[in-house]
Design goal:
The chain is mainly α and 268 residues long. 84% of the residues lie in helices and 0% in strands.
Length: 268
């Protein structure tokens, strides 16, 4: 029986290793196929629209202008991170209030629903005008609004996952409210918080890019994409698009890593 159990454990480990390898290899293979088809259509068949540049031309623009692209990437990443941080903090506080006080939950529900359907394209010009053409605050507020909803929803769900029997057990053991929060509520809600942050990180980058596209200071990835696309520099515009994708991927991977580290060893 011991040998059989060992064989089963080894088989499970091999299956898990293959699964992890597939999760890494599959996106790389898909990306390579897309790039190959792109190169075939643009450079070999010459069947692409004139505004679609060659991948080779985009790489050339990245190599030639990497310094200014990195500078604009830093501005966009900062706007996204500030918005993500502000939106997450507000969402956590309001979710805690909603989970603690039922009347507060009823008051916040329509507000969160309204924020969830706010068109970013509509409010971006308003916020950029409100804070001035030389300020990044409008862009950061747009990212914060976009990041707020997924964090709020996930944190509120996590705070409500604790079972009454567990709370009653701690209360019967003489645990204070703070001890109950530290021992039970926080560990239960933390994975949900990280899931919300993982989702919100990508949304915050998109919102920051959209906010830069529709005005504000003359810097950032979104502003550069709009400027170079309108002036006919399609390859350079796509190089900036690649920079925006890189920002989103880095934030998403960091949040995914944190989520995996926190949830490791927890029962599913």
């Amino acid at each position: 029986m011991t040998a059989v159990a060992a064989d089963r454990a080894a088989s499970a480990d091999r299956a898990e290793s293959r699964s992890r390898a597939a999760r890494v290899v599959a996106p790389i293979v898909v990306g390579a196929i897309i790039l190959a088809l792109w190169f075939l259509v643009v450079d070999v068949l010459h069947a692409a629209p004139r505004a679609l540049p060659s991948p080779v031309a985009i790489v050339g623009q990245l190599a030639e202008h990497y310094d200014i692209i990195l500078e604009d990437m830093g501005i966009t990443a900062t706007n996204a991170l500030v918005g993500l941080a502000v939106g997450a903090v507000v969402a956590i506080v309001l979710a805690a209030l909603a989970a603690t006080f039922r009347p507060m939950d009823g008051m916040l529900a329509p507000l969160v629903a309204a924020i969830a359907v706010v068109p970013i394209v509509a409010i971006t010009p308003i916020l950029n005008t409100m804070f001035g053409a030389s300020s990044q605050f409008g862009r950061q507020y747009v990212a914060a609004i976009a990041a707020f909803v997924p964090v709020f929803v996930n944190v509120l769900r996590g705070l409500r996952q604790t079972r009454p029997v567990h709370r009653d057990l701690l209360r019967a053991s003489g645990a204070s409210g703070l001890q109950t929060f530290r021992v039970l509520t926080l560990p239960t809600a933390l994975p949900y918080l990280l899931t919300g942050l993982r989702i919100a990180s990508s949304i915050a980058v998109i919102a920051a890019l959209v906010a830069e596209y529709f005005g504000g200071p003359a810097d950032g990835i979104g502003t550069a994409i709009a400027s170079y696309a309108k002036s006919g520099h399609a390859a350079l515009a796509f190089a900036y698009v690649a920079g925006g994708i890189a920002i989103g991927l880095v934030l998403f991977l960091v949040m995914s890593l944190l989520e995996r580290l926190v949830t490791r060893g927890r029962p599913v």
